[in-house]
Amino acid sequence: MTKAVASETGKGKGRFWIFVILTSCFLVFLMPALLILVLVGMLPTLVAGFVERHGLGRVQVTATLNLAGVLPFVTELWSSGGSFGQLMDMASSVYTWATMYGAAFSAIIYLWIGPYLAASYLDFKAARAIHYYEKQKTQLLEDWGDALTAEPAKEKPDTL
Amino acid sequence: MQKSRYEVNFSLTLPHLDTLGGAAYACVDSRDPSNAVYAMVPKDGAAFRHAVLQQMLGRSVANVACPLDATPIETESGGWVQAVIVPFPSGGALFNTKSPTRYSESDLRSKVLPDVVAGIQALTTHDLAHRSIRPDHLFYTDGSKAHVTLSECFSELPGQSQPLAFEPIERALAHPAGRGSGETTDDMFALGVTILALLAGAMPCEGMDDQDILNSRIARGSYNTYIKDVAPRGAFGALLRGLLCDDPRQRWGLDKVLRWLEGSMPGDPMSVQNYITASHYRFQSRNYTNRRLLAQALHTSFEAAIGELSNPSFQGWIRSAVKDQVGSVVVERLFDHGSRDRAALKLNGGTLSKVIQLLDHEGPIRFRSLSYMPDGLDGFVAHAVVTENKTVLRDLEDFFRAGYGRDLAVLAAGDSTRLRWIAMELADIEQHVDAKGLGTGIEHVLYYLNRALVCLSPLFEQCQVANVPQLLVALEALAGERADRDLLIDRHIAAFAAVRWSDCSGMVAELAKCENRHLEKALRTLKLYGLAQAQFEVGPLPHLCRHFAGKMRAAVKELHHPRTVTLVNRKIDELAETGNLLKLHDDVNFLSVRNRDRQRYKAAREQLARIERQLGAIERGFKPTDPLAAYMGQRVAVCAGYLTLLVTGLLTFLPGL
């Protein structure tokens, strides 16, 4: 089971890096400034992808939020022609860095809140299941009486 | 139990009417006090001639005491005994062994013999032989002493209590219980000895040892042994020579005696000694020229005699001694003189028994402790069972298991059709004698051989059960007397039912398989009795029904499901009062109910365990660190991430939204 998960994780990581390299090759010729923005802006995701050893879940959360933070600046750079000057303008704004890395940082909050939400949901479901099982148990005990809970006697040979 | 017509006075015994199988008591017929009767009560551990009792019951056989009724009688202690009511011979006995009387030839000829012979003749018409004719078994019917009657002949095995002198040699050689039902010719011999005793006023050979009498009779003939000093002359001399002839084929029969009574004089029997051989054989330091005596000696020293079989001189002597056609063939087969491998010959007890039979072809079948006439096996087995003679029972098992019984019966039958039929019937015995299960074994053999024998189960000590309906009625009475009595089927009841009601042999075999499973045994017994009740149309059996219902109720406690317990108990209560055993068995169908209950109980326990496992897992609540919550939390975070990306993308690319 562990081996299978590790193998799955390995494959996912491989695909992730292939995507990163291909996108980089494409952008390096088309819009080098855009490439630099993406590479620098997505640095938390690259670090997370590099250090993560336990599946892609956390990397996915970091990547999606990091991308959500970078995406407005990519669009802005794209629409303004993708010049290095424009890039430098963006880089000189704290707001730019705060948005890109802050978005990536919010992944930690997401990943922290997620299990709490899940536990609450499971507790809610368990309350309903407990009610169902208790009802079944009561029904069984009503049907069979104490004989059901008593230690079962060894099946006696036929005696009269 | 219904009050009997007859009142037995158990304090007034009639020892002169006692037999080996029954004790006689004074009895009054409450309906007709002038009817002189006595009651014959079977003794414990003794065998009756049940077939004869059934055949004669309520009939009128001239000059023979016939059973009038067989009825349960209440004892002084409050118990019940089965008593047979017999006409009381108020004239007393003709002959008292303690103070014997002599009778003149004329008295015998005019007063005694016509009645006795008429009695024997009347029995012959019913295809019966009396088998216990002797002076003290002849009685005057009333005080006028005008008529003589023969005693009853059903309360002991044929010839069982006869002194050796009153039995023909071949039957005298057998065990008293195995002397056989015999034929009229055997009664004629006993009549001859009786006449001699009445004439002499003493029992013949009185004071002599039985073995000496037997040896003398074999060596010199019965007539010569009994007539010591003065031989009766004239008509009585001829009569005695005719009746005391040792060859049953030459012995005077009824026709000749009747002719003699009318005054004619049938010819004397030819005196032929069939058993003398030309040369002697020496066995255990004694020379034998009489085959019968040697046969007897071989049987007496049975184990030592087996060794003698391998002695070539013995084999040669046997070949020369047995000269009849069939006998010679059998001898050749036994010793297989053509065989090169002499070691392969089976020279065992069975071979010795056959050799004994060849030497004394009219004599009893003899093997170790067994010694019975071919027509006496029924009584012999019955006696062995009631007296619990383990040696005889073990030898019987060995004997029939090895198949000797049938071979020897065929050999002993000779050209007698009656005995050949008996031999053929033994085939069925062999498959049962060695079996151990219910309905088989020696009990099966007992009831198979004794078709009229009552059931000897210890349960029926105080009543007589002669057929399956009576069995149910007796069980009903027992259940009524004491509710806690164990009325489960035992070996005797099972064998009795299997033989008397062949349809149930399959069920008895099934019963045998569950001998140690008491509940199943009880339920199968109930079914067996129920089917018998239905098939033989026996009326309701409420006590028996309640008895089995009680057993079922005890077993119901083992059921787990309270509602099933209530329902089954209610059903049992309803059916217990119907007296219908089959309905009780089939409608309750307890075994099926119990199996279903066990399966459902097992399933319910498994379900409860599963529920408790689930509850244990979820009742403690979930924490974010629980693997399931952590996993689901991560999935939630991933979904939220994608959602955020989607919203951001939409707001970025479609700013007008």
Structural commentary:
The complex is a heterodimer of chains A (160) and B (657). Chain A is mainly α and 160 residues long. Chain A has six helices and no strands. In chain A, α1 packs antiparallel against α2, α2 (32-41) packs antiparallel against α4 and α4 (57-79) packs antiparallel against α6. The two termini of chain A are 55 Å apart. By secondary structure, chain B is of the alpha+beta class. Chain B is 51% helix and 9% strand. Chain B has 28 helices and eleven strands. Chain B has helices spanning 50-56, 105-125, 169-172, 184-200, 210-220, 222-226, 234-243, 254-261, 291-300, 302-308, 312-321, 325-335, 349-359, 377-386, 390-401, 404-413, 417-425, 427-433, 441-449, 468-481, 491-500, 505-513, 518-535, 542-556, 562-576, 581-588, 590-619, 627-653; strands spanning 6-13, 22-29, 36-42, 69-74, 80-87, 138-140, 148-150, 276-283, 286-290, 365-367, 370-372. The N and C termini of chain B lie far apart (110 Å). Classes of the chains: A mainly alpha (160), B alpha+beta (657).
Report the order of strands and helices of chain A: HHHHHH
Approximately what portion of the residues of chain A adopt beta-strand conformation? under 5%
Report the total helices of chain B: 28
Low-confidence stretches of chain B: none
Radius of gyration based on Cα positions of chain B: 38 Å
Structural class of chain B: alpha+beta
* Major sheet summary line of chain A: none
Low-confidence stretches of chain A: none
The shape of chain A is: elongated
Query: Average pLDDT across residues of chain A?
Result: 84
Mean pLDDT across residues of chain B: 89
* Number of helical stretches of at least 4 residues of chain A: 6
How far apart the termini of chain A lie comes to: 55 Å
Helix percentage of chain B = 40-55%
